[in-house]
Amino acid sequence: MNSAGLSSGQKAPTAVTKATHKRKAGNSEDEDEGTHKKPRTAKKSKALPQAKQDRTPGAEVLLPVPLAKAAGETLAYSNFRAAICDSQQFFTSHDSGVTSKKCIATGILLTGKITARDVIKSQVIVTPIGGGFDKDKKGNLFRDKDQSTETRNYKYMLNAWMNGQPIGVVIGKKKLDSETDLYANNLLSIELEHHYNVLDWFFVTEIWPEFEPTQKNGASFKHFMMKLQKIDLNSPSWWVPKGHERENMCAIGQFHCRVFTCTSCNKESKEIFQQGWCCINASCPKFFHFSTPEVNFDSLQYNDTFLNERVSRDPTVEVQPLIPSLPFMEPTLYGSEKKFKDGIVCPTCRCASRRQSWNGWTCENCGFQLSLPPKDVDMAKIHRENQKALGKRRKQNFVDGRIVKHQQTIPGYDVTTFYLPNSPINQGEKDFIGSVTLFRPAKSALEREGGFDDLFQEMQEATRTGAVQLNRRPARCSGSHKEELTSHFACNMGADYKFGVVVKTSESFSSAPPPVMKALGRLTWTGKTAVELSSTYASAHGLSVDLVSMPTNFIDFNEQLILGYFEDSKISFHDDGEKELGPTVATLSLGSPSIMNFRGKKNAGFGTDEKLEPTMLTIRLQHGDTVVMHGTRIHQYFEHSVDAAGIRRYGVTCRYIRPEMMTSDESRQRAIENGKVPLHWQERAYSGEAA
């Protein structure tokens, strides 16, 4: 072969060797990897308009041309990325394009070409590994330096290559341009009916560095490419155009890509490009030098022999079923373990569907239902979980030095009040803007008839039977393909409450089941008691408190939000600062333990970093604990989160919704009517524990 810097039987002529120094992407002769100061630039092709020369990742031009029908049907699909992530074990990354387990890649998502060279055929994918990008002000990805071997994606893919790890591939769509709502995938020449589609199992056959096509700023840097080969070479691929099922189906040993040895570094490289051979050893002085001086990096294409070459894989590496089987309840499980929050692939229509109901799954396409209500957790297990968590209390509890803490005991409860400081930016104002009061019940209050243990069991029955219907709601990007559901399940009773997620109209307290009303009675008493205790102590000890934020009077609650938590569920940092809310919020923890954190909001002034304020209060919540937040300005400067730490937990929170702040007469009247406590429940209202 007439190429430079290589040997294959005979050394290439000297004249040809010199020609390799006339590179189109900037001559870096005698430079080692990482020593260059300026980005490599390639000559622009005169055949294309300047506007189409942008090879910046994500900027590939997509043209709305007619597309062929697919040869087959995908194994699983969804219009929601989260549904694919929830229902597949190999790809669970809601944001990243690569999923890994123990630093080994297991799955990737491809939404289109990253560079013009990218290829997908019936049995082969060639694509950049990705990672190491920066973002411009518009969120577009670009490189400002060579991709490092220290990037996570590179390490994960290299480990997958070395271990023969099967890689599940998901194909998706991306927006054609910022001015349309059209989505497509320019890696494929078929019409994709759904936004996300499972391809098949692949494995990495090789990884190599090359210079990327020119970015719009004229720069070109080294990045890593990979070639993936379909594991099952005998089955047709559904993602090729109909009628072309046999194209590019090759057998192991049918094609062999030529290999040459570089005379500069003495390393072998395959002849991967149609334009000729080049050394792809990144540390070689002749890296990416071609024998032809007029090679245009932006026009490089992989040669057919390289694309058609098939290699064998280690047969001892197990390949799991691509589509997981439907979940079932094992005798030793409760049904709220972490895995039961995963999604399913509908056995009827193959739609990947998220678990949105506490009691099971409903296909998001055809309506197929799989009922699997969690079994009741016995109190012995709940007490064991809480006792174990109690042993970690010293490590978990934290109180910032700027918080004033006061402890006291009342019949049936140990009470701890934390006075939260005003923001440092409010110089000259009152020192404290709110209180957080923890009520921890005595053992007798837990175990007596009608105590917290009984209330937990009643709540389990109510959620299992559907008397309380818990569901996961959209937390962000509602209705779009990026929609994400809450980690927890929720149900609202009494007055309507919109707390950052869409909740259906509340059920009236007049029709609420007993555990809801019993919890309401307990929380109303606890909220009133917390306001009295915190106000009395602040007055007696001369604390400088903002009485507008934390008034001394208490208003009875008219709303209740029940949150159900499976194992490892959580509610992320948020506040309860909606304008419709009164100053007091009380939440009861039933079941497994959890950790509640309070931190200052961004730019609240409590920390030194404007982007991340410090955690200022950490409370490990036990079964039966109640936390009362009193003070409207708490939610102006603080936010809180809850992380469940066991098999089953309910967080029952009550608030006062101010009808006068409702936007319409209808909603105001509904809040008043739904929030009324029936007389027979008023007569049975909780009044504390016996002395």
UniProtKB/TrEMBL annotation:
Pfam families named in the record: 2OG-FeII_Oxy_2
Annotated region described as Disordered, given as residue ranges: 1-59
Compositionally biased intervals (Basic residues): 37-46
InterPro entries associated with the record: AlkB-like, AlkB-like_sf, ALKBH2
Binding site for 2-oxoglutarate: 565, 574, 640
Recorded GO MF terms: broad specificity oxidative DNA demethylase activity; cytosine C-5 DNA demethylase activity; ferrous iron binding
Protein name per the record: Alpha-ketoglutarate-dependent dioxygenase AlkB-like domain-containing protein
Species the sequence originates in: Xylaria arbuscula
Lineage, broadest ranks: Eukaryota, Fungi, Dikarya, Ascomycota, Pezizomycotina
